[in-house]
Amino acid sequence: MNTSDQKPVSDQMALISQQAELKQLIAQYAKTAGVYETPISSLFLARIDQPSAPVHTVHKPAFCIIVQGLKRTMLADEVFYYSAGQYMVVSLDLPVVGQVVEATPEVPYLGLRIDLDPQQIGELLMTLKSQPSPPSKNTTAGCGMFVSNLHASLLDAVLRLVRLLTSPEDISVLAPMAMREIIYRLLQDDQAEILRQIVMSDSQAKHISKAIDLIKRDYNKTLRIEDMARIANMSVSSLHHHFKAVTAMSPLQYQKQLRLQEARRLLFTEMADAATAGHLVGYQSPSQFSREYNRLFGSPPARDVARLRSSGVLAVA
């Protein structure tokens, strides 16, 4: 066996060993079902003991790994599956539906999420600007979410971050170093162009992120596409085209997702009635609100919230 044959084999063996250690660390920290905050502010660990119902949320920019189980994430009509040996990156705020589809008490779903700071990505890119970019399968900004295969160098950096949970006194110094390496490794991977586009000031994806910021800020107001196009420094037709490419939905569909998710939160946490919740998030017609709520969540507002309350929690992805 020559050297070029040996390297892929050794990398695969390293990956298997790293996954086993990471699984042990997550199981040690997450002893029962739930999503756990950690002393590392950007790091969250998850354990789920059974398949979950679909969970609607606005996913923040993040890097997610599964070490056991299988998860499905839906972005509009796009469906992403990922499992052990893979990771998912969300590069900007996206309304998604997440669902754990493989998990049992004996073999639970185990995974982690690391929130990504676009500013940190941009700062690291500035230090790398004199280096040639790695080959990329994506020459233009595509969907703001992707699934890719893990490799040993990336997982090694993740492991060093998670190991710090056993030595809290080291977190303040070593966690930023591990996070920087994780971002560096992501920027060297074959789908890195999606992350690069999100922080490059002259990219179409960066322009779309400005439009998203406007929708998030004024989600309960009438959406004027012309205003969005002006803020994004794009024509109306270009805005529609690139917004759909990045988010898999139109600006109006994006706004509707935000409105209905916020209304659901109000109904669940603040005991608001459907008419009030609908009005607060920007609906003028109670019947239209109930109709669109039912279409997204599968039940009318009162029935949906009753089900949520009987389960005791408003699930989050």
TrEMBL record:
Record-linked InterPro entries: Homeodomain-like_sf (IPR009057), HTH_AraC (IPR018060), Tscrpt_reg_HTH_AraC_N (IPR009594)
Residue ranges occupied by any HTH araC/xylS-type domain in the UniProt entry: 209-307
Gene Ontology molecular function, alphabetical: DNA-binding transcription factor activity; sequence-specific DNA binding
Keywords, in A-Z order: Transcription, Transcription regulation
Keyword flag Transcription: yes
SUPFAM superfamilies per record: Homeodomain-like
Metal-binding as UniProt keyword: no
Protein name: Helix-turn-helix domain-containing protein
Species for this entry: Glaciimonas soli
